[in-house]
Design a protein that fits this description.
heterodimer; A: 9-stranded mixed sheet; 3-stranded antiparallel sheet; 40% helix; 20% strand; elongated; B: two-stranded antiparallel ribbon; 3 strands; protein biosynthesis (chain B); ligase (chain B); glutaminyl-tRNA synthase (glutamine-hydrolyzing) activity (chain B); asparaginyl-tRNA synthase (glutamine-hydrolyzing) activity (chain B); transferase activity (chain B)
Amino acid sequence: MEYEVVVGLETHAELATVTKLFCGCSTKFGIEPNTQVCPVCLGMPGVLPVMNKKAFDYALKAAIALNCKIDEFTNFDRKSYYYPDLPKNYQISQNYYNLGADGYMDIHVNGLVSRIRIHNVHLEEEAGKLIHPEEVGADYSLVDFNRAGVPLLEIVSYPDMRNVDEVESYMQTLKKILLYTEVSDCKMQEGSLRFEASISLRKKGSEKLGNRVEIKNLNSMKSVLRALEYETKRQTDSLGRGETIDRETRLWDEVNEKSARMRSKEEAQDYRYFPEPDLLPVLVDRKWIAEIKETIPELPLAKKQRFMEVFKLSDYDTSLLVEEKVLADLFEDCIKILDRPKVFCNWIANDLLREVNEKKLDIHQLPVRPKQLAALVEMIEKGTISSTIAKEVFSEMILTGNDPQVIVEEKKLTQINDEGFIGAVIAKIISSNPSAIEDYKKGKKNALVFLVGQVMKETKGKANPKMVNELLQKKID
Amino acid sequence: MKIKKKDIEYVANLSRIELSEIEKETFVHQLNDILSYIEKLNRLNTETVKPMSCAIDVTNIFREDIVEPSISLEDTQLNAPAIKGVFFKVPKVIE
Ligand SMILES: [Zn+2]
C-alpha cells in the first residue's frame, strides 16, 4: 500500500520587543534567573495586564506578510491549564478571535512554487522555563520566570505539506520572512523560534485525512525533519501490520532519534477558553493596516524572482543572496554604484560567505561598505590589482573595513605591469627550470602553466598574469 | 442544564482540587441553584445582541515598549513556598 504523508506545522516565534507583552519587564536573553519579573508576569493577585503596542504591531505585520485576512475586531482569551511554568494557571492567548486568518505562504521546492495555506496567526504570552536538575534522583524541578510573558507569535499552517522537502522549505521561508520583517530574531538555539509538527498518513488518492500525531520537543529544523522521517516510517509500518494510528502527542528524543508517547496528554485537554476580562478589545482599522503594510519590505521570494529576472542570475546564486537581507541590500547598493550584477553576486555569494564561514564573522556586523566593494571591482577592471590579489585585499577589508585603495598601498600590492621587470623575472625562471622548458618543447602544454606559476610566485602574485603568459610564450616558442 | 456529580468531579480534577463526598453533594446543589438563577436570562430574546466580553466601551489601550524596572529577587521569592538559589522550586515535572 502506498501512503501519502500529510504534514502541518505550528510555529512559535518570540517577538523582538524589548519588554514583555503585558508589563515593562525586559525580555533580554541569558540574564540571571527570576530577575526580569514583576507582579504582573508573576501572576500576583489583582494585577492588570496592559498590551505592548509594538508587540501587537509586530504580530499584525507578520500576519499581513503571511497574506492573512485581518478582522477589524480582535480580542484575547484565557487558556486555562496547570503547569509550573505558567504562573497565573492560565495563558493569555487568542481562541475566539485571531489576529490574522486564512493566509498563505509560497515556498520554493526544487524550482517549483507551492502555496502553503496559513490557518491563523495569533498573539499570546510565553511561559517560564523549567529546569530539570542533573543530579540523579532529584525529586524537584526549578522554574525561571524571566521568559514568562514574553510576546509570542503563533503561526498555524494547514496540513498542506506532503514531504520533508516542503517542510524544510516552509521552515526556511517562514524564518526568512520573520527576519526580513524584523519581528523576531529567530534564534533557534535561544528558543525564539520553535516548531511543532503534526503528521498523518493516508492512502494515495484518498481525500480523507488519517489520525494525526503531534510531535513536540523539536529543537532544530534538523530534528523536525528527522522526527517526520521517523514518524512516517513508524506509521507506515503500523498500518502495514493492519494496526490503527492513535491520535496522540509524541515527544521527540533527539539523542536516540525516536519519539515516544507523551504520558500527560492521555487525558483529554480542556482549556476552558473564555474572553480575557482584564484586556480591552482591539479594533484594527484600514489606516492602521495600511501603515503596517508600508513597513513590510520586499519579501525574500519576490526579491529572488526579481534578481533572477532583472539581473539574469542563477537560481542558486540568488537563493544565496536573499538568504540574509543584509546581503541582498549590499548587492543592490553595489549595483547602484557600478552596474556589474554577476561580478558583485560572485563576490558576495562566494568570497564574502566563505570568509564569513571561515572566520566565523557575524554577517550583521560586517564593516565592508558597498562603496568599498565597488572600488575593489574597479581596481581589478583597471588592472591596478590582479584578481588573486583582490581576494587577499577583500579578506582584509571584511575584517577591518579599510578602503581597498589603502590596503593595496600599505601592503604594496599594486599589480606589476612593467614589461622590462616581468621579462627579467621570466629570464630567471627559464634559466633555473631547464627541464620544464624541455617538457614544453616536447609538447607538454602543462609546463607553461607551471612556469607562469613560478613567475607569479617570484613576484608574490603581483605580476599581471596576462602579461606573464604572453611574454613567457613569446620567449620559449 | 443540570449539573451532576460527575461534572463536579471533572472540574475539580481540572482545577486540581480534592473534594470529599459531602462537598461534592453540596456543590452539585449550589451550582445547580446558580445556573437556574442565571437561566432566567434565557427568557430574553438575544438574537440581535452581539456577544460582549467587556463591560466598558473602551478599545485599543496600549503601553509603549519601554523597559521599566523589575522587582528585586528578594521580593520575587517572598511568597514562594519553596526556592532553591535564584529559582522557584516545584515538585518534579515529568517530561
Ligand atoms: Zn513583568
